[in-house]
Amino acid sequence: MLPAQARLRRRPEFTAVVRSGRRAGRPTLVVHYLSERPVARVGGPSDPATGPRAGFVVGKTVGNSVCRHRVTRQLRHLVGDRLDRLPPTADLVVRARPEAAQAGSAVLSRDLDAGLDRVLGDRGSRSRRP
User: Fold this and answer.
1) Long-range contacts of 12-19 (CB under 8 A, 24+ apart)
2) Virtual CA dihedral for 9, 100, 102, 62, nearest 10 degrees?
3) Cβ distance 111 to 104 under 8 Å?
4) Average pLDDT over every residue of 48-57
5) Which of 42, 50, 65, 93 is most buried, judging by how many CB atoms fall within 10 Å of its CB?
6) Residue 116: phi, psi to the nearest 5?
7) Exposed/middle/buried for residue 22 (C-beta within 10 Å: 0-12, 13-18, 19+)
8) Could you tell me what percentage of the chain is helix, strand and coil, using 3-state DSSP and rounding each to the nearest 5?
9) pLDDT on residue 33
10) Contact 1/75 with Cβ under 8 angstroms?
11) Rama region for 62: left / alpha / beta (φ>0; ψ in -120 to 50; rest)
């Protein structure tokens, strides 16, 4: 499970990652990565977030509500296991493509790993493999 402090919640946070970050497209998802999160404006939350954060975009093109929530739960679980690959100041947005509805956890996991390897520049992939 992804802890509450490790989640992106507000639209400006998602927008900053998608517009300013690196992107890697895979068949079932798109990974958006921003290594340095922007400084919060005055009047925003006073406590800076510690550790990497992740957010998910699963639109209606993926399927009905049941399908979208299932895909979101799968992605949340998979990203939670991989947050240690990200630097503490990083933000990550995972956008599901319509193909994610038919994909199993193994396919989503493979695509997520490939997307992270690409946006991180293969920095953390070698240390995880035996």
Assistant:
1) 13/37, 13/53, 13/55, 13/91, 14/55, 14/57, 14/93, 16/91, 17/55, 17/91, 17/92, 17/93, 18/93
2) 60
3) no
4) 84
5) 93
6) -65, -40
7) middle
8) 45, 15, 40
9) 94
10) no
11) alpha
Chain centre to alpha carbon of residue 10: 14
Predicted local distance difference test score (pLDDT) of residue 123: 52
Q: Please determine, for residue 128, whether its predicted confidence score (pLDDT) is greater than 80.
A: no
- Residues 109-129 as b or e (16 or more Cβ within 10 Å = b): bebbbebbbbbbeeeeeeeee
Distance CA 6, CA 71 (A): 19
Q: Strand, coil or helix: what is 9?
A: coil
Asked whether residue 125 carries a pLDDT value surpassing 50, the answer given is no
Average pLDDT of every residue of the chain = 86
What sections of 7-104 are H helices per DSSP?
Answer: 11-20, 65-82
